[in-house]
Amino acid sequence: xxxxxxxxxxxxxxxxxxxxxxxxxxxxxxxxxxxxxxxxxxxxxxxxxxxxxxxxxxxxxxxxxxxxxxxxxxxxxxxxxxxxxxxxxxxxxxxxxxxxxxxxxxxxxxxxxxxxxxxxxxxxxxxxxxxxxxxxxxxxxxxxxxxxxxxxxxxxxxxxxxxxxxxxxxxxxxxxxxxxxxxxxxxxxxxxxxxxxxxxxxxxxxxxxxxxxxxxxxxxxxxxxxxxxxxxxxxxxxxxxxxxxxxxxxxxxxxxxxxxxxxxxxxxxxxxxxxxxxxxxxxxxxxxxxxxxx
Length: 294
Known about the structure:
It is a single chain. This protein is mainly alpha-helical. About 80% of the residues lie in helices and about 0% in strands.
């Protein structure tokens, strides 16, 4: 019924309302077509403003290249950074992953050999990843979002993010301890958290661009998504290699064993949970029986 009503609204030219009912009906194709019409009308209506902004930016860029007026704003900020911020160890640790982002091998080496990271900043980056993930699942356009925001269970999402992460950290540390790895548990934790930086950037970017894409431009969205995932995987591989001081072949073997170990740990946790749940149910039944007879 929702789909039929949405189609009627679309035929009548009420595209914004049609989008609402297509979303309720979970019809992505219909939503995309209605969204394209709304977006097209918005672009045509604001074409003059868009051209004006572009011309203004070009003029400002040319003017800056001649008189360099932006230095009046950038110079005080640069002095504040060098004289105040860079003297703070916490600030240096917070911006260190930005260096790691550009130079991953040197960056992970710095975690292990030069102690340039910290557990606190790693935790902050892990929480930033979780916040970016929540933004992605809650605010991404319906066309690219498999989640229904009103039905999202926050506890389930916490488990989805943090359980695999900590399983990876613990499993990798245990495997490397057996396989002559040099990294400590804190090194693995810090390196793994910092390696999530590409996805910390990717999730908000995807959320933003999804608001302006129809289904026909899905290749843009998925290219950015898969590029972020691939870069994160590459950083994790480099992390294992540099933190534990491996060559590439042992690194790949170590990662495969780590994944297997993490799956086994998850299976054990699941079995223990089931057993504890059965024990709890048994105790609860006994208590209820005693109370009812008493």
